[in-house]
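Subject: Protein record for review, amino acid sequence with backbone structure tokens
Concerning: The relation between a protein's sequence and the shape of its backbone.
How to read it: Take the token row as a discrete description of the fold.
Enclosed: The protein record, placed directly beneath this head.
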Amino acid sequence: MTTPQPTDPLGAVYAEWTEEFAAHPDMSLRLMRWVFEDWQRVTTEPEDVTYKSTELGGVPGILVRPLTADPAQVMVFLHGGGFALGSSASHRKLAGHIAAACGATGFVADFRRAPEHPYPAQLDDTTAVFDALVESGIDPADIAFVGDSAGANIAIATVLRQRTRGAGTPGVVLTISPWLDMENGGETIATNDDTDFLITREGLQGNIDRYLSGGASARDPLVNPLYAEFAGFPPLYITAADVESLYADAARLHALAAGAVVDVTFDVAPGQQHVFPLQAGQLPAADQAIATMAAWYRGRRSAGAHRRFAAPASA
């Protein structure tokens, strides 16, 4: 049987990385972080988007401003990379494409990374960004969390924690290839191993060990949202590829949210790689995925605005 080969730019990059990881099994975390900055190579530069290095709530990051964006709508982008890798630089172009399609401004947060800063530092930083936006006058309903892979975990867990505290939450949450199972038991890690050119169970476990090095349990719902109760969660968008190793996490998240009667949409991308929208501008499937996300976002915003500003019923 022929081993599947990459057919898209992202798959080719993942295959290159995998070769290097196999050739250098003792690669330092510092070097791995340099490698993952290469993520941005597969994303084209979006048109009519400006960037500014800044900070919100003491958290550094990159402000993303499409020229036609509504400054009152803010998308907080939480990058993937297993809680230890990736950065605002690796994801700023993807954020630019998504923010422009949605007509919003964005902030790509450089939350603290593990193992130097294990859980819950990432949730603390996301909360600090959210609070700073609200304090600046942004309505919480006009804030969206957008997370890919581990960033999706951070987005979901931050909302769950805010709910338990009785604090405000964003109006919507959008996730791409979410990674949630910190017990590392997802069945598609094995069944999709040949078609996912990046993810391995061993690599996932290394990042889990870094993230939980402070002693948190892999079954804590704020670490592993597959143990969480989703009733009352904001409208949730999920996209994942059917051949990626973390597909089971996305499917389980969808089932949990739907069972809790959350307004949830699950868009399954056939034959794509982990976080495939990173190929915006290079791959039609990535551009279509972002257009679909934007249509969902605009639809939920319109519905939310109608609920907030509808005239009260007459007596």
Summary: The chain is about 40% helix and 15% strand. The domain at 12-302 is CATH 3.40.50.1820 (Rossmann fold).
